[in-house]
Amino acid sequence: MKSRHVCMMVLFVSSVIWTWAASPNLLVHHHVVDDTAAGCDQDGIADYGEVVQFLLYIDNRGDADATDVWVSLTAADCLISGKVSLGTIAAGQVAVEVWFDVEVSDTVPCPAEDWEFEASLTCHETGTTLEPFYETVNADWRMSIFFDDMECAGDGGWTHSAGVGSDDWQKVTTSAHSPVQSWFSADYPSAKDVYLVTPALSLYDSAKMSFWHKRNMEVQGNEWAYDGCVLEISTNGGGTWTDLGPDVLQGGYSHTVFDWAATNPLHGRPVWSGNMDWTLVKVDLSAYAPGEALLRFRLGCDEQETAPGEAGWWIDDVRIEEGRYDCHHQPCSSDCTYGDLDFDGSCDADDVLLLAHYLAGNPAGFTCDEAFGDLNRNGGVDGHDLIILLNFVCNNISIIPLP
């Protein structure tokens, strides 16, 4: 008789009971910098010499009240008012305001982007939580502008040359976007490669370019061209050049030069071509910043016929705009809040000269900050601002005082 063995497995399951203890969760939702009471530039940036207010909004994202709440604020090289009691912040309560007076010292770099501040949030239930955030201090936001409407006498800092054929770039009055002059190079029935180059430019991260152009060049249909023009950039002083076609935001290339049009140095490349009246082009230059750059307007022609009528390329109203933080801050004790165009701390004859150059059509490639040149705050820089600045520098009484 066979014996039978019975195996029995007994599985014991122990139940685990999880318990959840409600607790507060304090954090800084966001912050605001207010420098209006300092009476200086009132740009929302804490500068050396200003006492500004930092407003912190505190949230309790937890499921329990936070009691005996204290908040303090610290940052390197800054004098900041002491800790503040907020009492109790209920569970789920948001945007509880707390103010701190902040004074940036003269040892903070200028400008200091992303300067670290640290809020210390303490309550009875969870102890202290550190909440870092970053703010730009000891700086001003500047909108700089290079602008040339081609109205000044001479070349105004521009240069031009030819790689193939003859350099015929010149200022003309046959057509212009504003008011009467533009740069022009003709579309010839011969091999040609000519360049019009801007003055050296300092580009910052947000740099954008715009210009107006008119063209009349030989094409075949809506896609192919014999002659054409491009915009290029150099960041090594003209050693090498990069086509800016991929960076055009508005008014991009319209045709491609026939690859077999080998006498045109631009053969096989996308270009502007055809017959088009004055058109606006916008270009993003941020990929080539920060640093020095040259911009080159380049026209290439082959040996075939030209377009009917007056053929060529007209360039006008070249503008480069860029917003950036700069080290210029306006001291509260100064009477020269605006008008210090060279940012040397005073309004003087050099600033008068710079503003005069700007109004004369920017002949030296001078970059003017319109915010500081608009002395009567009427939304633009004009001859009235030059009179105001001249009167101020000469210690005369101006009809419209500096703000």
Polypeptide structure, described:
The chain has about 400 residues and is mostly beta strands. It has three domains: about 25-140, Immunoglobulin-like, CATH 2.60.40.10; about 145-325, Jelly Rolls (Sandwich); about 330-395, Type 1 dockerin domain. The protein has three helices and 26 strands. It has helices at about 350-360, 370-375, 385-395; strands at about 25-35, 50-60, 65-75, 80, 85-90, 95-105, 110-125, 125-135, 140-150, 160-165, 170, 180-185, 190-195, 200-205, 210-215, 220, 225, 230-235, 240-245, 250, 255, 270, 275-285, 290-300, 310-325, 370. Strands 9, 11, 12, 15, 20, 23, 25 and 26 form an eight-stranded antiparallel β-sheet that branches. Strands 10, 13, 14, 18, 19 and 24 form a six-stranded antiparallel β-sheet that branches. A four-stranded antiparallel β-sheet has the order 1-2-6-4, with no helix packed on it.
- Average pLDDT, all residues: 84
Sheet bearing the most strands, described?
Answer: 8 strands, antiparallel
- CATH topology (fold) name of the largest domain: Jelly Rolls
Radius of gyration: 32 Å
Helix content: under 10%
Percentage of residues in strands: 35-45%
Helices, by number, come to 3
Overall number of strands: 26
Question: What is the CATH architecture assignment of the largest domain?
Answer: Sandwich
- Give the overall form: elongated
SSE ordering:
EEEEEEEEEEEEEEEEEEEEEEEEEHEHH
What's the structural domain tally?
3
Q: Spans of 5+ residues with little confidence (pLDDT < 50)?
A: 1-14, 331-335, 396-403
CATH top level assignment of the largest domain: Mainly Beta
User: Gap between N and C termini, in Å?
Assistant: 116 Å
